Amino acid sequence: MGTLAWETPYSIHSLRVSPRGDQVACFSEPSTIRGTGKIVVLDATGRRTELADVVGFTGLAWGPDGQEIWYSLEAEGSSRIFALAPSRKQRLLLHQAGRLRLLDAARDGRILVSLDNDLKGVMGRSSAGGQERDLGWNEANMATQISADGKLVLLGRGDDFGTLLGSIYLRPLDGSPAMPVGQGERFALSPDGREVLTWTSNSPSQLSLIPTGSGAPKTIPLDESLFVSRLWFLPGNQGFLLWAIIPGRKVSLLVVGPEGGKARPLLEGASVWWGAEPVSPDGQHVAVIDYNRANVSAGDLKLVPVGGGPVVGVRGTREGDILSGWTADPLGLLLFNRDGLPCRLVRLDLATGRRDPLGEFMPADPSGISGIQEIQVSRDGRSYSYNYVRRLSDLYLVEGLK
To answer: Is the pTM of this model over 0.85?
Structure first.
């Protein structure tokens, strides 16, 4: 039986054993933002050294001398490979367009890399039936919500963690042309489908309400500068739910009134799924992953009362469960697992923990797709959309790096 060297609630991946077998290098991802974390080395005694903070990490390997760590990162459509010495000094080895992922390094300095092409897309079907159809429109390749009547899907740019301003559309699920709504970096559809809430990182940061029909946008001022990563309407004119960062604090769940002003904290250190509907239909609870309690795994799904009160655990969850939304009653949650195809959607009864299968999702052409990213289901359960990423890769052997 082995000896425990390191236990952490966060994701660890890209483990590489040194050529001498006395150290292990890996990437620790304590953030909910993919590729943002630290390159960490553990020795045979369990001593841990954090060598570098990295944003946009894609891969690592031990260098030819067995001392340096070579790693790759991608940002804004181009990639770099660096050599990182034990002293934390680093040098640039390669600069390449596209998403380059370092897989391994040979003793003679050659490296094995993959050049990945990630194609995002959205599929869906209306309550009228028929075959699934591609619902993407121009650069809008990600669905975030379906209207309450199940007829429209809200689409935007699939840059889930960046701060790129993009166009927002409402598209009928029957495949009719999309209707432009406006622009924003984050966006959400009101329960009645009449307004879209957006956020932009302009200084000062602010929320805006854009009518989906006629009318002028309305600015919702905020008393403090926030970096908003997710946002939703709260039913019953309660205002808005934000998953945001207040400068100098952890990421937090916040409630902002319908006229804006000061945000009221609900829970610090929580995570909310992108592309999910975490707010219950009655507006009483928000379903979250609570980082303050445990790691992102089987038992971490919690219900946070919007009006204040103790956080309630959810039983019946399993490792890998991702929230899609709530049932209309609101006595259950809709959950799925991103890993593997077809993706299976289940209804979790909040009172009993019972899980009932509801359906399976998979594009007609599954090549390059490892799983479904997000699923949106209408309140009546008859319309749906889902987001996917198709990764197609070319493998290269690179020589001459020094």
So the answer is: no
